[in-house]
Description:
This protein is mostly helical and 400 residues long. The chain contains 16 helices and 2 strands. The protein has helices at residues 2-11, 15-19, 39-46, 54-57, 81-89, 112-120, 122-145, 164-232, 240-247, 265-289, 297-306, 309-312, 324-353, 361-365, 371-377, 379-395, and strands at residues 158-160, 368-370. It is elongated and about 100 Å long.
Amino acid sequence: MFRTLIALLLTMSFVTMGHAQDAPATVPDRSATGGAQTLEDILARQRGEKVDNGFRSDATGDPNNAAAPSNQLGTLGGASDPELWRALRFGSADITASNNGPAATTLVQDGGMRWLRFRQGPLLTYGSYLLGGTLLLLALFYLVRGRIRIDGVKTGHKIERFKAIERFGHWLLAGSFILLGLTGLISLFGRKFLIPTFGHEAFSTLAVASKWVHNNVSWAFMIALVMIFVMWVIHNLPDRTDINWLLKGGGIFSKGHPPAKKFNAGQKLIFWSVILLGASISVSGLSLLFPFEINIFAATFAKLNAFGISELLGLGELRTDLAPHEEMQYAQLWHAIVSFVLMAIIFAHIYIGTLGMEGAYDAMGSGEVEEQWAREHHSLWVDEVKAKEKPNTENATPAE
Length: 400
Ligand code: HEM
């Protein structure tokens, strides 16, 4: 289930990466180099264009052509020096290493530069656009719609909305997420923005502290995620009221409020985004926390291939023979991409929980909300609460 979920989530972000595996239309003429790579191959790679590496990865020596042991080339088992280096580079060399560990036999891994370029380029650029764009949209929304006020007359009567344990779970999740977001951004934006501004010395202290906080606070986030899931999943299962709520756009721009239970459809979307994206961030984070121990991408790509999802999305056959370092590179990118998406969603959530809606914050602050607020935003839930209160009042023995 977990893996299928990750498989589905993965399909969202590897569209561009998958295209890199398409075969080029024409095979370049390499006769001048005797089949070895040409200057044009090297330049094309440097321009970031796709280069079919088959002519190198398949040319790693043929044992059947091995020279006899008596011959000088016999020690290489039929492979020349360049062929051996290619075999090392493309992961097909038969290696015995004296050191231990899951990645010990990967002596050359050629995805590092691709990963670094993506991390320093599109990831930073589009990540910033997403967060900045979300803040701009929220500012615009505030200017157009203003604060969502309590329409009716306040009753002065409060209803308990969240128990202390629920608020604890929420603030553990919120506090840890904010710390993780800040320290994650520090390590992502450090090299490009913070080092030029503060210098290496200051940044190194900040980076070490950030990494420590990020690695350790992650446990609080995971625990809180489980708490929130267990406590609130029952209230977040989709039902018919959600369709009506969504069709009316939550009543945000119209008069009147569509009926809702404890959580309306908008909140259910937030809940499931937090749970699913939070789980995906946690799994990829664990993979990074225990390098080379938890490899999730080759298995996910294999599932995407097997279910035909990669084909359906035009990604072709995804590679499943990933080097341990490639697993880490994908985990880092995925971790950051999904975190950016969840941060943008949480910006909107924080806005509506504070500035955007009168009376909302009390639900997580004191745990009690104004009854009129509750009637306007969660009318069916108020009915449920009142119905539960009623039998108690009816059963109560009147004082003589
Ligand atoms: C300063 C930051 C935050 C504030 C002020 C805030 C405020 C609130 C409030 C007032 C509610 C209750 C809404 C209601 O009564 O209907 C709520 C619910 C919730 N919060 Fe937060 N929150 C914050 C950060 C976060 C973060 C970082 C996460 C997750 C990573 C999160 C996840 C949730 C979830 C899943 C719910 C239930 C669904 C919903 O009401 O949208 N919150 N929050």
